[in-house]
């Protein structure tokens, strides 16, 4: 009985550019982790570990930046509504 697993070597990305980048980084993290389990030399495993860690940190940084931008946009929206509410109402003549 064969223990070789069949894994598709293609994938598709969907969403906007940021979503696609996040998906690609997740694939890099996953494939780096999977490749570490294979029978490679110490130097290759070290490089794969560094790749996994780097892609994971970039993904985390990107996620944090997206969250920060959303929060900032929400804060600016609230500020804009408050600013407009302070304008006096004009009556059409």
Radius of gyration: 23 Å
Uncertain segments are none
Report the average pLDDT across residues. Answer: 84
The helix/strand series, from N terminus to C terminus, equals HH
What overall form do the CA principal axes indicate? elongated
Tally of DSSP β-strands: 0
- Alpha carbon gap, first and last residue: 88 Å
Pairing-aware structural class of the strands and helices?
Answer: mainly alpha
Q: In this structure, how is the largest beta sheet organized?
A: none
Helix % is: 55-70%
Count of runs of 4 or more consecutive helical residues: 2
User: Which percent range describes the beta-strand content?
Assistant: under 5%
Structural summary, described in words:
It contains two helices and no strands. With 93 residues, the chain is mostly helical. Helix 1 (17-36) packs antiparallel against helix 2 (42-85). The radius of gyration is 23 Å and the shape is elongated.
Secondary-structure blueprint of this entry?
Elements: H1 17-36, H2 42-85
Helix pairs in contact: 1-2
